[in-house]
């Protein structure tokens, strides 16, 4: 990507950032700053909505065509679901006539009951959750922000600048940039940031590319703060992000780590980032809110996370020397750190008011490589959780952590049976399979659509349907593949692109 394209993208990025950060997100539907329009108001103002959609279509016809095609396909499946109901009844009757079919039905209904119950419990936890209020300058701890960078080019400059522009007390903020042996001009941009920021920024260069975990390890050992914050070098933070992120450590001495609220930076043109943005909002603002209410967020994201110094150094030797099946672990450093901090008995929380915008893959290849890396890490860390999850690892209730572990384990255990049933269903009744799959996507994705529509935008919320369609038919193989290749290493997405 040349410098002119980067600058053009950055202008759009900051426009998007200003739009996102120009208001306070409402909680439970309350209006903040008079900017947010809730779902019912959007429905009433349908004429304005259609006008907005027309303008949006002219600006991005390819994206809108994909979205409208998705809706047409899913609602067509809903009609077919009704029309083919006798065929579904016949298919189910034939299955229940066998012992295996009855057993399969019982297992399916049991898992469905568990998932529905867990979702309803998560809704309760989400309603119960409230972000912790930020504390005064006097109470804020000394904070070290670590930014590992590899082949990020100019993006690292914007990351460091956004951190330096934070309203965190300058005398309490240490920013470290660590170039992990980049092959492009990343180091030059770090040097430019150093020229502008002066003593507020300390810079380091690894002798060779050693991996993100080793770059963070160097930062942990160099940093002097009571709280460590890790930020990816392709991410932009809001001015009050750091303050909000570290405040839980002051309020709660049992807090060992805090996850930030990650949203998508590069979602102006590319379709995959548009889809991922809706998915990220649900994953963080709903799922992690519920996990935080249990004190058991399972993964603090690499894009933005904070750790108590003592919690880090209690597990740092184990973390840097972590292996899986005899091989050094060079992926999943964020999930591994979170797991080890949970094992110490600390709580891991989520701060919905600590925002970060981060770059995500724009191509199918980049997307599946990212998901493979996450999937392998998930397999490894769920296995590691078995070492402590049923022990007395924490004071007080451990029910929430164990419930989340059980949910993750079921997903892994059922990965292969689900694929086998899918193959059987396709061979036996291909039309019924397609219809049932599309109708399920319509029903289940509507939860994300409604959530995003209420929190942000009705029109953008429909990308949840397109993303679910992509995942169901284009990425279903990720978890089974990640399971059988869990021992493989490699970042997969860190090299330069042409």
From TrEMBL:
Residue span(s) of domain Glycosyltransferase 2-like: 144-312
Top-level taxon of origin: Bacteria
Transmembrane parts of this sequence: 65-84, 104-127, 403-426, 432-452, 464-484
Entry's localization field: Cell membrane
Keywords: Cell membrane, Glycosyltransferase, Membrane, Transferase, Transmembrane, Transmembrane helix
A single MF term (Gene Ontology): glycosyltransferase activity
Keyword Glycosyltransferase: yes
Protein family (similarity comment): Belongs to the NodC/HAS family.
Protein name according to UniProt: N-acetylglucosaminyltransferase
Organism of origin: Flavobacterium ardleyense
């Amino acid at each position: 990507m040349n410098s002119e394209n980067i600058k053009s993208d950055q202008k759009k990025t900051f426009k998007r950032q200003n739009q996102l950060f120009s208001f306070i997100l409402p909680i439970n539907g309350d209006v903040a700053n008079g900017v947010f329009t809730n779902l019912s108001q959007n429905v009433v103002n349908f004429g304005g909505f259609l006008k907005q959609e027309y303008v949006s279509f002219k600006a991005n016809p390819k994206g809108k065509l994909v979205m409208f095609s998705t809706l047409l396909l899913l609602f067509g499946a809903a009609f077919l679901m009704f029309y083919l109901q006798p065929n579904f009844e016949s298919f189910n009757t034939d299955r229940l006539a066998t012992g295996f079919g009855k057993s399969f039905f019982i297992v399916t209904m049991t898992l469905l009951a568990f998932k529905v119950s867990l979702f309803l419990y998560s809704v309760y936890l989400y309603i119960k959750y409230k972000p912790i209020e930020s504390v005064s300058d006097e109470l804020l701890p000394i904070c070290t922000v670590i930014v590992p960078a590899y082949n990020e080019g100019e993006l690292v400059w914007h990351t460091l600048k956004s951190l330096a522009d934070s309203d965190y007390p300058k005398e309490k903020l240490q920013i470290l940039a660590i170039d992990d042996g980049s092959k492009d001009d990343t180091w030059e941009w770090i040097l430019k940031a150093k020229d502008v920021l002066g003593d507020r920024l300390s810079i380091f260069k690894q002798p060779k590319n050693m991996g993100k975990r080793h770059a963070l390890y160097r930062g942990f050992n160099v940093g002097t703060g009571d709280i460590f914050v890790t930020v990816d070098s392709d991410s932009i933070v809001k001015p009050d992000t750091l303050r909000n992120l570290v405040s839980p450590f002051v309020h709660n001495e049992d807090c060992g780590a805090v996850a930030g609220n990650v949203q998508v930076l590069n979602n102006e043109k590319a379709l995959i980032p548009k889809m991922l943005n809706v998915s990220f909002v649900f994953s963080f603002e709903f799922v992690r809110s519920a996990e935080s209410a249990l004190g058991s967020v399972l993964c603090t994201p690499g894009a933005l996370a904070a750790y108590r110094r003592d919690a880090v150094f209690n597990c740092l030797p184990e973390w840097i020397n972590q292996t899986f099946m005899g091989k050094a672990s060079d992926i999943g450093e964020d999930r591994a750190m979170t797991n080890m901090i949970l094992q110490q008995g600390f709580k891991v929380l989520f701060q919905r008011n600590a925002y970060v915008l981060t770059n995500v893959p724009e191509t199918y290849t980049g997307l599946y490589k990212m998901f493979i890396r996450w999937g392998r890490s998930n397999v490894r860390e769920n296995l590691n959780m078995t070492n402590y999850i049923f022990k007395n690892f924490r004071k007080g209730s451990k029910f929430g952590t164990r419930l989340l572990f059980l949910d993750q384990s079921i997903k892994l255990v059922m990965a292969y049976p689900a694929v086998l049933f899918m193959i059987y269903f396709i061979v036996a009744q291909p039309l019924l399979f397609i219809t049932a799959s599309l109708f399920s996507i319509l029903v289940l994705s509507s939860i994300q659509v409604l959530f995003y529509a209420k929190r942000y935008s009705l029109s953008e919320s429909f990308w949840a349907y397109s993303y679910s369609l992509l995942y169901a038919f284009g990425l279903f193989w990720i978890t089974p593949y990640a399971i059988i290749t869990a021992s493989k290493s490699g970042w997969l997405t860190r090299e330069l692109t042409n």
